[in-house]
Amino acid sequence: MLKITNLHVKLEDEDKVILRGVNLTVGAGEVHAIMGPNGSGKSTLSYVLAGRDGYTVTEGSASLEGKELLGMDPEARAAAGLFLAFQYPVEIPGVGNMTFLRTAVNAQKKARGEAELSAAEFLKLVREKAKTLKIDADMLKRPVNVGFSGGEKKRNEILQMAMLEPRMCILDETDSGLDVDAMKLVAEGVNALRGAGRSFLVITHYQRLLDHIKPDVVHIMAAGQIIRSGGPELALEVEANGYVDILAGGN
Amino acid sequence: MALMQLQQDALAARLAALPTASGRTTGWLARARADAEARLLAQGLPTKRDEYWRYTDPASLVAPDAPPALRFDPGDEAPVFGDIDRLKIVFVDGVFDAEASDDLTLAGVEIERLITAGEVDGHWAQSVLGVLEARGQTPVARPFATLATARAGDGILIRVMAKAARPVAFVYEHSGETSDAVLHHCIKVEAGAELTLLESGPGAARLTKVMEVEVGEGAAFHHVRVQGRDHARRAATHVFAHVGAAALFKSFTLTANGRLTRNEAVVDLAGAGARAHLAGAAVGDGEFHHDDTVFVTHAAPACESRQVFKKVLMNGAVGVFQGKILVKPTAQKTDGYQISQSLLLDEDSQFLAKPELEIYADDVKCSHGSTSGAIDETALFYLQSRGVPRPAAQALLVLAFLAQTIEEISDEAVAEDIRSRLEGWLQRHSAKGER
Questions:
Q1: pTM for this prediction
Q2: Which pick of A36, A58, B311, B409 has the fewest CB atoms within 10 Å?
Q3: What is the domain partition of chain B in residue ranges?
């Protein structure tokens, strides 16, 4: 599904190297987690995959289902099936959440040459998906993320994911700023989307989220590289001992 | 003050190029016109050296002949306000077109042509026509308004005595490539009555226009205008409003394209509890100069005024906002609000804002703000990451930026016409590069 090879990335405006040769392959239907201390490059990896400005790829490649991602516009990556759930979902005053969702769904359908949803079809679908995420009608009407609580913003990300039905989902610290109940709700939303060959890359600081979203593979990232990979037990090891031992021992 | 010879010559040439106003040479209208012409000869026409014209060069408005302007082809776009049930009054190059207009009958409303009204002695309009305009000349002169009172070729007078069942719509068509139209409308909304007036279209290659509106006690007047999209058109428009106790005056303008547009609004809140809401949305790409000049006077207690003006500018377009709130000593408990904002889509465009407050009462709430900014790149990326192509994402953010002005429109169907039209323009602009 997702194949990252020897990816090197620096900041565009300064000579700061952030990723130093990331290698990662996520198979169809797999859930991978990336853990790592602050500043290890986890969020940069997610932004570079989604196509955010401000980074320069100096070496390496990343492909989604065989299609090279790095030369594509962000919207083309999305249409190809990539989705990034933001750590800090963006507030867009003046744009209604419904308008936003419908524009996004239909833009992707159009890009893929599929029929766009009518207003009625869209409404039915969004109501159904919103209900399972406990997103009420008011949240759908309000401007995108404006005045949303931390939990509401993250649920709104998962709603977008559910509506867009991507092939490859990247969750960037989706657990940050969530209480236990909100985290459960978000995790249920994610779990409901598992299957049908859909893959996930879950970026997190804490093992806690992985109790709810069970990964197949756990990677530890430090200083711009993946230094160790293993099964779910690796996350438990981090939880028990912190990153220090792993950083010292390497792979 | 004696005018400079050059200014005298410029005015003489401008007047010589205009036809003398038609109709009776005696009577109230003739007197109002003669009075205005005398005032104009004393005022002269502005130059760029006038403080009030510092940001907008009036030269092409002063020139004797209208610079040529081709008509804009709207393609298959539906006519503005086409779906609104309205009484349509059509002008072609500033001349009333009876054939294309609806029958001028509306329950509780008197509608007539300026020229016809001039024949009638003791007409109601004599207490409004030229009166509000003349009063609005202090503290700042507005010579193009004086010109319109003196030389208007046509215009409509409306007296509203009840709540009008449907809006009256002025449709200004532009036909001649160098047409130079001068219009003067006069509206009196009697106590407790209500009217919505819609205006659309470019009017002419160059349009000089005055609308005087007297809003009686407890009455309401809603004005919604969409200025035509001809690229080279020029316009100097003026709205003078006198708002009585507990009355409401609302005015919204959408402008896209036009080489030069100066929209002046002069509003007197004259009765206790009067309200005035003024809003404008402007979208300019390339050779576009758009000036909103607003002067709101709070002359009575407990009045409320709002000014909400937003402009989206690119490729060297220029936006100007001169907005003033004057609070007189008698106007305690004033609530005044003013915001002017621009969204600059590139580094070539500019926004010039001159917000002013002048307050002589002590129990007053007045706020004003003015900002210029670029598009929010983070929001753009967020939209793109959800699959929305960058041009469409930008159009969505532009529409969101302008949304606050459209919210000032009371009539939902009218607001929806404006919203969807603007959306269509922005989408076609982003998809096909249409301007």
A1: 0.90
A2: A58
A3: 5-375
